[in-house]
Design a protein that fits this description.
Layout lengths: L1 E7 L2 E7 L19 H6 L29 H9 L5 E2 L6 E7 L6 E4 L3 E5 L3 H6 L7 H8 L8 E5 H7 L15 H14 L6 H14 L32 H5 L30 H9 L5 E2 L6 E3 L2 E2 L6 E2 L5 E5 L3 H6 L7 H8 L8 E5 H7 L15 H14 L6 H13 L43 E3 L5 E5 L14 E4 L1
C-alpha cells in the first residue's frame, strides 16, 4: 500500500494506492486542481444547463476498472471503511465494515445501510458538460475511486434526499461539513471542466464567502477521521493559505528554552468571550458530530458524539475525551512562549479562532502524546499523520514559535514524504470555528421536576415542564423553612 498526498487548495487530499485501485491513465488520475474554492469558482463558466437526453446508463458506473473482481462500489466501501471489511462468498460484495457518513455524521456497520454518492451527481455532470463527453470519459468520472472528493460513502436516506440536487437546493444536514462540501463541489467541477448555472453559482459564491476566504476541501484517507470533513472556516488572524513546506521554511530553528515551565503560566479553560462557556466546553460543543446537549444551568456538555482524529475512535461519553493543545503548552513555552506576556499565553491556551489549535481527542491517546513534538510522537492513525504535521507547522508559524534541530529535521522529512508540494496548513478534518450556540437543551432521558415535591439532595438543580429552573432546598425563596425540615423543589 502506498500513500501520497496532493495539495488541494488550502486542504489536503490523501490518496491510497493499492492493487485494488486502478492505475490506468485517465482524467481522474491527474492531480486535483490546487486552487482555493473562491479562486476555483471564479474559473468556472456560468451558462445554462443542457436539459434533456440524460440516461444513467450513459455513464457506465460500477465497473471493475482494474479487473480484480471488485466493482467501484466495493472499491469505495473497502477504501473508506474505518475497519477491515467482510465480503460475501467469492463475490466482491462488501457486507460489513465501519463507515462514517460525511453528510450527517452517522456511523454504519452494514454495507446495505450506505450508498456511494457521486458528490456532483451523474445528471448534474451531464447537464453541466458531460453531455458532450465521450463514453470513456463519462465512465472515468462515474468510477473515479482515486480522488476521494468524487465518491462518498453516505447514509442511504441522506443520499436519497440529495438526489440530483446542486447546492442551491441541497446542503448536508451536518452544518459543520457544509463549507467542505461546497469546496469539494467546486473542486470537482473545476477538475472536470464543468459549468454552473446562475442559480448554482450565485448560491455557492454567497455560501463560500460566508465560510471565509481560506475555506477549503477537507478529504483524506478512508481509514482516517477525515470522514468528519467539517467546515474549514478560519477566523481572522489565521495563517494564510500556502504549502506546509513554504511555512516550514519561515520557522526559526534554535535550541529550546527548557526551564521555568509551569502549566499555570498558561491560564486555560477560560471564558474569554463571556458567553458562559469555558474553552473546554466550547471545543466539545464545536467538535461534536451531533448537536451537543448542554446543561441548562451552566455551559456543561452532558452528551455529544465525538470522533478522535488521532486514532479514529468514536465516543459518546465526554469522559473519554481530552481537549488537546496540538502544540502542547510546554512545547509552546520551550519554543518561544517563555517570553510572552500572561495575556498572550492566555490567548494561546484558549485559542478558538483556529480549529487546528485545540482538538477533542481520545484521552488515553492524548496522555501518550503528552508534551512530545513530532520527533517523538505521531498520531497512531497513520493516514492522519500528514494532516497532523501540517497543523503543527501552521500553529508554530502562526504563533511565531521556533523548532529545535531534531524537531525541524523530523518535520521536514515528514512534509517531504507527504508530497512534493507539501501539505496545506488547513487541517483535513478542521471543524467550524464559528462560536457555538450555548442554547441549553435537556439531555435525552432527563425528567422534569415537580414544583413543590420533596427532593434530594439539597442543592440539586432541575427544570420544570414550564422550562423554569428549580432548586432542591429546605427553605422557600423568602427563607421560610419547610415543615419537618424536608427539602422541596422551589424556584431557583
Amino acid at each position: 500500500m502506498k500513500w501520497r498526498v496532493i495539495a488541494h487548495g488550502a486542504a489536503v487530499v490523501v490518496v491510497m494506492s493499492c492493487s485494488s485501485v486502478s492505475q490506468h491513465a485517465s482524467a481522474s488520475t491527474q492531480p486535483v486542481v490546487t486552487l482555493p474554492p473562491l479562486e476555483g469558482l471564479a474559473k468556472i463558466t456560468v451558462s445554462n444547463e443542457h436539459k434533456g437526453g440524460f440516461q444513467r446508463a450513459l455513464f457506465v458506473e460500477n465497473k471493475d476498472v482494474d479487473k480484480d473482481g471488485c466493482n467501484t462500489r466495493a472499491e469505495v466501501l473497502e477504501r473508506d471503511s474505518l475497519q477491515a471489511v467482510q465480503k460475501s462468498g467469492t463475490r466482491c460484495t462488501v457486507t460489513t465494515g465501519k463507515w462514517l457518513s460525511a453528510y450527517d455524521g452517522r456511523t454504519w456497520l452494514l454495507g446495505r445501510d450506505v450508498q456511494i454518492d457521486h458528490l456532483v451527481s451523474l445528471k448534474e455532470v451531464w447537464d453541466s458538460g458531460g453531455w458532450a463527453w465521450s463514453t470513456a470519459r463519462r465512465s472515468e468520472y462515474a468510477n473515479d475511486v482515486e480522488h476521494r472528493i468524487t465518491l462518498n460513502v453516505v447514509t442511504n436516506s441522506e443520499n436519497a434526499k440529495k438526489g440530483e440536487k446542486d447546492p442551491s437546493n441541497y446542503l448536508p444536514p451536518l452544518v459543520s461539513y457544509r463549507c467542505t462540501y461546497l469546496a469539494n463541489w467546486v473542486a470537482v467541477k473545476v477538475q472536470w471542466n464543468l459549468t454552473m448555472d446562475q442559480s448554482e453559482y450565485g448560491r455557492i459564491k454567497k455560501l463560500l464567502e460566508g465560510c471565509g476566504t481560506s475555506s477549503a476541501t477537507s478529504t483524506s484517507s478512508s481509514t482516517s477521521t477525515t470522514l468528519l470533513r467539517s467546515s474549514t472556516s478560519i477566523a481572522a488572524g489565521g495563517v494564510a493559505a500556502g504549502s506546509t513546506a513554504a511555512l516550514l521554511a519561515t520557522i526559526v530553528v534554535e535550541n529550546e528554552h527548557p526551564s521555568g515551565y509551569v502549566r499555570e503560566l498558561f491560564p486555560h479553560w477560560k471564558d474569554l468571550d463571556g458567553n458562559g462557556c469555558d474553552t473546554r466546553e466550547e471545543v466539545l460543543i464545536r467538535d461534536s458530530l451531533t448537536k451537543a446537549q448542554v446543561d441548562p444551568f451552566g455551559c456543561v456538555v452532558m452528551a455529544g458524539d465525538w470522533l478522535s482524529p488521532y486514532d479514529g475512535a468514536r465516543w459518546s461519553d465526554k469522559g473519554n475525551i481530552d481537549i488537546d493543545h496540538v502544540v502542547a503548552l510546554k512545547e509552546a513555552w520551550d519554543s518561544g512562549a517563555w517570553a510572552w506576556t500572561t495575556a498572550q499565553r492566555t490567548l494561546y491556551a484558549n485559542d478558538l479562532s483556529d480549529a487546528r489549535t485545540l482538538r477533542a481527542v481520545t484521552d488515553t491517546v492524548n496522555q501518550e502524546k503528552s508534551d512530545k513534538d513530532p520527533s517523538n510522537w505521531l498520531p497512531p492513525l497513520v493516514s492522519y499523520q500528514c494532516t497532523y504535521i501540517s497543523d503543527w507547522v501552521s500553529i508554530k508559524a502562526r504563533w511565531k514559535l521556533s523548532m529545535d534541530q531534531s524537531e525541524y529535521g523530523r518535520v521536514k522529512k515528514l512534509v517531504d514524504g507527504c508530497g512534493t508540494s507539501g501539505t496545506s496548513p488547513s487541517s483535513s478534518i478542521a471543524t467550524s470555528v464559528t462560536q457555538p450556540s450555548t442554547t441549553s437543551t435537556m439531555p435525552s432521558g432527563v425528567k422534569y421536576v415537580s414544583p413543590g415535591a420533596y427532593c434530594a439532595p439539597i442543592g440539586a438543580q432541575g427544570i420544570a415542564e414550564s422550562k423554569v429552573s428549580y432548586v432542591c432546598a429546605t427553605t422557600s425563596a423568602t427563607g421560610e423553612a419547610y415543615a419537618n425540615g424536608r427539602a422541596r423543589w422551589r424556584k431557583g
